[in-house]
Amino acid sequence: MFMFKLFVKNRMSSFKNLLADFHIVGPIGLAVTIPWIMYRMFSAAWLRKSYNDLIGKVVVITGASSGLGEALAHEFYQYGAQVVLCARRRQELERVRTDLLHSQCKSTTYPPIIVPLDLSEPNFQNHVDKVLSITGKIDILVNNGGISYRGLVKDTRIDVDQRIMAVNYFGTVALTKAVLTDMLKQKQGHIIFISSVQGLVALPERSAYSASKHALQAFADSLRAEVAQYNIPVTIVSPGYIKTQLSINALTSTGKVYNQMDATTEAGYEPQYAAQEIVKGVLKKKKEMVLCGLLPRIAIFLRRYLPFVYFFVMERRARKSRLRDSAVGKEK
């Protein structure tokens, strides 16, 4: 009985202390929580209204035949944008267009336009003129098309590096310049570059890909400053791993197709989720988006603020990769 009374007394004492603490912490918590809730409610309402701004917008998307590009086409289309689908494979573009026409949409829709193009052949003025002759304008350019790479620097032929740069950087820059001419005349538009976390932190065995994305980051930053006065926002998106065919279609050091799905890619974000987040960022006119999990964010932090730690971690990663490849070679 004595122990029970002691237990009750201790509980009552703890409850009183909690009430005493609440008199101090409670008002502070409410002062922080209520504005945060109001901000979230306002942001959600603003975002719902902003989706209406996409109705009738002409959105050109490269790499629209699969993966993230296809998901972005669906996301823009369902909110009433007129999407222009660009990629090398006409048959796949036709498939995407058919899927869009049969999809459930939240707004008035416009028939998707197909423009086959190859980013490695950077002469795009005719393509841009074709789009303008049909739509009369280009409101949003999404530079999503690209190619990945797997290999060691010492084993990689220079023509592989050149091909990666031709598609990921020079082709993207050439198309941007072709579209920019009309945007400057209209004094409006929005240019989006889909880069990569590897454009912020380079990984072993990704040298050509990381280099092309680093270059894209720098180009976007310069362009943003130059066109701000013309009401043309520039958004650069740095996603982590997204569950697409990117690693399967990657080039190896010899120029052959990698033809493997990396475990990290397999475990990546679904393209639909990434597309939703990117469109939200576009509506908010974000200058930069980093769309990834905790580990890539830690790597970005280390590279920026503790580079010696980042260098050490990357060296260990490269060493482990060599040992793994050596073990696989012996098994064969």
From TrEMBL:
Keyword set includes Magnesium: no
A single BP term in Gene Ontology: lipid metabolic process
Keyword Cell inner membrane: no
Keywords (A to Z) from UniProt: Membrane, Oxidoreductase, Transmembrane, Transmembrane helix
Segments traversing the membrane: 20-39
Top-rank lineage group of the source organism: Eukaryota
Annotated ranges, domain Ketoreductase: 57-235
Molecular-function GO terms, alphabetical: oxidoreductase activity
Family annotation (NCBIfam families): PRK06181.1 (NF004825)
Protein family membership: Belongs to the short-chain dehydrogenases/reductases (SDR) family.
Function according to Swiss-Prot or TrEMBL: Putative oxidoreductase.
Official protein name in the record: Ketoreductase domain-containing protein
The organism of origin for this protein: Hypothenemus hampei (Coffee berry borer)
